[in-house]
Specification:
By secondary structure, the protein is an alpha+beta fold. Helices cover 33% and strands 31% of the residues. It has helices at residues 35-45, 103-119, 123-129, 144-155, 172-177, 181-190, and strands at residues 16-18, 27-32, 49-62, 66-80, 87-102, 135-137, 141-143.
Length: 191
């Protein structure tokens, strides 16, 4: 199944979790993406392929209505080397920690954070210092597959290089031995 075969609006990788199913001691979960989900997510992210994707997560209660989700997403993705243009497999190993709150509370926290950033003189510094607002709990559920998909995308190297491949750089010694174009002009002028 490709992304285009998914129902309209369906995420390519989804593992909904009802907030009510998380007890006081929390939950530990492990799950893998199916081959069809890997194909759909690769298409969605513009990757050549996702060979495997595994998620480990711990879901903890934070009071009556909040959750904290900590874990790790591991994947093997096929990418193209920006130096050699060869296809190779790369490992993505990305940890995550995200707090979830009821939708109205999460939206209010986001609005406060944006207002503080907008009011700051140095917006970049304010953004860097601002703690992440919680993600919303929608309809009494969170989606651990969507969360893993986000952190997979964050863990991708935007300029992938095949292991052992380096960019060739011009050495400083080579530049010093090469005559300057101005020296060549001066020599012509003297002649």
């Amino acid at each position: 199944m490709t992304h285009s075969q998914l129902p309209e609006g369906a995420p390519p990788f989804s593992r909904p979790l009802a907030v009510d199913s998380v007890g006081e001691n929390g939950l530990r979960l492990k799950f893998d993406a199916s081959a069809a989900e890997c194909d759909a997510l690769a298409e969605f992210d513009g990757l050549e392929a996702i060979r495997s994707l595994a998620v480990e997560a711990e879901v903890l209660r934070r009071g009556a209505e909040r959750l904290l989700v900590k874990g790790r997403v591991r994947a093997v993705v096929a990418q193209t080397c920006v130096v050699t243009l060869e296809r190779f497999d790369a490992l993505v190993d990305e940890p995550f920690e995200v707090e979830f709150a009821p939708e109205a509370e999460a939206e209010a926290a986001y609005a406060r954070a944006m207002a503080e950033i907008e009011a700051a003189q140095d917006k970049a510094a304010a953004l860097a210092e601002q703690p992440d607002p919680p993600d919303p709990i929608v309809g009494g559920k969170i989606d651990l597959g969507a969360l893993a998909s986000e952190f997979l995308a964050l863990g991708l190297d935007p300029y992938p290089r095949k292991p052992g491949v380096e960019f060739a750089s011009v050495s400083e010694d080579a530049e010093e031995t090469r005559p300057s174009p101005f020296a060549s002009l001066a020599k012509l002028k003297k002649e």
